[in-house]
Amino acid sequence: MKPTSFSILFLLLIVLFSCNSNNNDAKYAVIADATLSEEPAAVESVAELSMSEKNKATDKDDTELKTVEPVLIKKKIIKDGNISVKTNDIAISKKNIDELLKKLNAYYETEDLQNNDQAISYNLKIRVPAANFEKLISSIENGKDELTSKNIQARDVTEEFVDITTRLANKREYLKRYKELLSKASTVKDILAIEENIRVIEEEIESKEGRLKYLSDQVSFSTLALNLYKEKEYVYKPQAQDKFSERIKNSISEGWTSIIDFLLWTIAIWPFIILITGIVYIVRKIKRKRKNKVQ
Fold first, then answer.
1. pLDDT band for position 39 (50/70/90)?
2. Taking 80 as the threshold, does the pLDDT of residue 174 lie above it?
3. Are 141 and 64 in contact (CB under 8 A)?
4. pLDDT tens, 179-188?
5. Is the pTM value of this prediction over 0.70?
6. Which label site among 85, 86, 122, 130 has the fewest CB atoms less than 10 Å from its CB?
7. How far is CA 227 from CA 139, 221, 222, in A?
8. Do the bridges between strand 146-156 and strand 107-115 make them parallel or antiparallel, or are there none, so unpaired?
9. Range of lowest pLDDT (34-38, 129-133, 134-138, 169-173)
10. CA-based torsion, 236, 239, 241, 247: positive or negative
11. pLDDT digit string (tens) for 238-293?
């Protein structure tokens, strides 16, 4: 009985020891997992970084779009046009246009003057505040000059404006995250990869900002191409005839010039003249021999 009791007691101690060791291992595993989760992860490869950042950003696209759209309720319209005006006094008409632009806070972007035998004209490219665009058109139409052509266009760029604004906000968020990753990068390879991504994003941001600035300028100031011209009267001016004696002198001079030109031309072709003369002489000589033989 004694060996049996001793063996049972030994088995119980082994079971208790194994259970205790399993609990400790599980405890250590939990602590290790928690510690790893709290440690900052090493910087991933470029592809993994890009995918993770893009996935995080796409989750915020809808919310960012909702925050941008209500601000851009007002439509963004670009207005421009072309007008041609015929005038009888171009100096007065140009002066009137100058005064009109001062009243409407407009200015000339380009001013080109053309003066030829048919007409004198101004090709003017006018930038005017969008609120005064219709006033400028109306003032030109109601003026004393004749309106010969008119073409006005309006382009709605609201959708493009909203799209660029939203993308620009997202790009700035990407840039912020990459800079945060850059501060945590530990290897040269990861630092160079993140810096390259930062450079690309900064270039995209500059491009979007430039496009947004251009659209804002086009919306704020409308463009009008104005052609102001005056046709000139065609006056026939007959050419004055020379005196008879002058005409005779000119004829003699021209005739003498023709003779000299002919002599010079003949001298220039002297090899051909000699060649032709030789050929004619040989042909005649052959004919004479044939006639003598026949006789």
1. very low
2. yes
3. no
4. 998 888 888 9
5. no
6. 130
7. 15, 19, 16
8. unpaired
9. 34-38
10. negative
11. 566 567 777 787 888 888 888 888 888 888 888 888 888 888 888 888 888 777 77
Count Cβ neighbours within 10 Å for each residue of 81-112 and write b for 16 or more, e otherwise.
bebbbbbeebeebeebbeebbeebebeeeeee
Asked if pLDDT for residue 43 goes beyond 80, the answer is: no
Q: Which two tokens stand for residue 197?
A: 């991504």
User: CA 70, CA 109: separation in Å to the nearest integer?
Assistant: 34
Are 189 and 177 in contact by the 8 Å Cβ rule? The answer is: no
Query: What is the enclosing helix (H) or strand (E) of 191?
Result: helix 188-220
Integer Cα distance of 196 and 190 in angstroms: 10
Do the bridges between strand 119-129 and strand 146-156 make them parallel or antiparallel, or are there none, so unpaired?
unpaired
Q: What is the DSSP string of 132-182?
A: GHHHHHHHHHTSSSEEEEEEEEEEE-HHHHHHHHHHHHHHHHHHHHHHHHH
Element (H, E) at 283: helix 270-294
Residue 222 has pLDDT above 60, yes or no: yes
Q: Enter the tokens of residue 76.
A: 């963004």
Token digits of residue 184: 């945590």
- Please choose, from the candidates 164, 196, 160, 162, the residue with its C-alpha nearest in 3D space to the C-alpha of residue 178: 196
